[in-house]
Amino acid sequence: MGAVSKNKLKWDKILSFVAFVGPALVLFLIIQIVPFFMGVYYSFTSWNGVSSTVEWVGLDNYIKLFTNDQRFFNSFMFTSKFMIAAVIISNLIGFSLALLLNAALKTRNILRTVFFVPNVIGGLLLGFIWQFIFVRGFAAIGDITNIPFFQQPWLGDASTAFWAIVIVFAWQISGYMMVIYIAALQGVDTSLLEAAKIDGANSFTTLTKIIIPLILPAFTICFFLTISMAFKIFDLNLSLTGGGPFNSTQSVAINIYQEAFTNNNYGLGSAKSILFFIIVAIVTTVQVMVTKKREVQA
Fold this sequence. Notes:
Blueprint: H1 2-42, H2 60-67, H3 70-101, H4 108-116, H5 123-145, H6 148-151, H7 158-185, H8 190-198, H9 203-214, H10 216-231, H11 235-240, H12 252-262, H13 266-297
Helix pairs in contact: 3-7, 3-10, 4-7, 7-10, 8-9, 10-13, 12-13
């Protein structure tokens, strides 16, 4: 009788697991895993995305990427530079806001909401809003004040367009990073801070020697999120500059999209996406390993 009850309990747990996890697992397989392996297969073909015939070409697409695709290399260099600048600026702003709003301010809840709101606005809409600001708003302010900062061709020059995308990305994502940093700061034991103050530690020493080491897991999460988001930037880049001027701000995601769906080179586009996936996976894995190691040391 006891064995029957144990078996029934075991099957109840299995059925409960299938009922709760099964639908999500099936959707994950259909939406993520199956298309990924299909992309791997098509990266070894010359399929145009429309024809019913698929010609196997082996490693030709990957060889072409490394030997005869300067535009992809340029887009990757732009994306890498953008990632570095965006990650540093976004985390600096997010952490600074978290320190500010973790203090006993009467308006901190309102300010947290205000700084987080840009993160819930879609990238396409955000890009068009800031396109208007850069083209019309900054020009109007520049005409009135004659301040050189507002008189620059923000979206018409390669260097200023780069920083325009960085500014908008940081403005969008910093509030999200702020929330993560605030959650980490609120978990810091206040008795440690009080003891440091009694021992004569100033604010900078307390921040660098106590607070930051204690919240390194938050830095690990925020760096991972910002690196992956910056690498995969698409909608914001598309709506703000469209990769211009003269493809100088074309991200890898836009390059892949144009290759597959504009040029109808689905096989080559799939090869680019697989290579890009491998690079992003390596970079984020190394970042997590390095920051996790610092957490252990702390």
